[in-house]
Amino acid sequence: MPDLNLLLALDVLLAEGSVAGAARRLQLSPSAMSRTLARLREVTADPLLVRAGRGLVPTPRAIELRAQVGALVDGANAVLRPADKLDLGTLQRRFTLRSSEGFVETFGPHLLGLVEAQAPGVILQFLTKPDKDSAPLREGEVDLETGVIDAQTAPEMRAMPLFDDRWVGAVRPDHSLAQGEITAGRFAACSHVMVVRRGLHSRDIDEAVRTAGLERRIATVVNGFSAALALARDTQLVATVPERHTEGLRRGMYCFALPVEIPAFTLSMLWHPRMDGDLAHRWLRACLRSVCSTKRG
């Protein structure tokens, strides 16, 4: 394999036309620079620089190489130089975001509007998050996802909090819970739709109800917030869902704070560390933070 360091030496030699001048620029001794020139002559099978009076002049082969070598060195410098500028107006990129049901309906319109205003060439692809497997982030299938950090989250993933959330009840406007004080007894006595998903379940809610000495009456079980709210909207079932996360899915429904003690939780965005320095990815993360920090209602 050729020594790519020779490209830089050749570029400087051809620019200086002098072994001593090239040595000064590369901070080498004249003898070390002479040895490098000897290696270049061997590799290219050409003298490259020949004596003409008291100086050196390039051979036809060296003149031919000058433009090529300069472009290669400039390209290498650009590759190795830290990225310091992002032109959003000309950015052409597709980002894939993965989130649980309700997130896109709640935050997607504002995020799309912000992205379109700043970077019209960017396309966002939204995927539903069926579980907490970090493989899609690790393998590059997903650029960014949202979720609650817990023991199932891959330890190498980067994370940043987006907002705090809490569980709330949601019923149709003419439900009995839409009138009067909602006690733990009234809440537990109703028929409930339970959400069960890999890595996200209603067990915390049931434990909180049991702590109050009661038991929820589960009428049906679904695997997502959309299905739970759709059933609650058209039946007398009670759905218990994250408040901010599902705001876009709960329009027109009567919502209430749970009458039992249950901890709040934090929703974060997660990404693979290889995307830390990517300027476009940083911009997208800033957009998502901005959107999620905006109060609604």
Which quaternary structure do these chains form?
single chain
Provide the low-confidence segments as ranges.
Answer: none
**Average of per-residue pLDDT values:** 87
Assign a percent range to the helix content.
25-40%
CATH topology of the largest domain: D-Maltodextrin-Binding Protein, domain 2
The CATH architecture term of the largest domain is 3-Layer(aba) Sandwich
How many DSSP H or I helices?
A: 10
How many separate domains?
A: 3
Overall radius of gyration: 32 Å
Q: Can you tell me the overall shape?
A: rod-shaped
Largest sheet: 6 strands, mixed
Strand content: 15-25%
Any idea what the CATH superfamily of the largest domain is called? Periplasmic binding protein-like II
Quickly list its features.
single chain, 297 residues, alpha/beta, Arc Repressor Mutant, subunit A, D-Maltodextrin-Binding Protein, domain 2, 3 domains, six-stranded mixed β-sheet, five-stranded mixed β-sheet, 13 strands, 39% helix, 24% strand
Write up what this structure looks like.
By secondary structure, the chain is α/β, with parallel strands linked by helices. The protein folds into three domains: 5-80, Orthogonal Bundle (Arc Repressor Mutant, subunit A); 93-164 and 266-293, 3-Layer(aba) Sandwich (D-Maltodextrin-Binding Protein, domain 2), CATH 3.40.190.10; 167-263, Periplasmic binding protein-like II (D-Maltodextrin-Binding Protein, domain 2, 3-Layer(aba) Sandwich). 39% of the residues lie in helices and 24% in strands. The chain has ten helices and 13 strands. The chain has helices spanning 5-16, 19-26, 30-44, 60-80, 103-118, 135-138, 184-189, 203-211, 225-234, 279-293; strands at residues 49-52, 55-58, 93-99, 122-128, 144-147, 158-165, 167-171, 191-197, 200-201, 217-222, 238-242, 254-257, 265-271. Strands 7, 8, 9, 10, 11 and 12 form a six-stranded mixed beta sheet that branches. Strands 4-3-5-13-6 form a five-stranded mixed beta sheet, covered by helices on one side. β3 (93-99), α5 (103-118) and β4 (122-128) form a beta-alpha-beta unit. α1 packs across α3, α2 packs across α3 (30-44) and α5 (103-118) packs across α10 (279-293). It is rod-shaped.
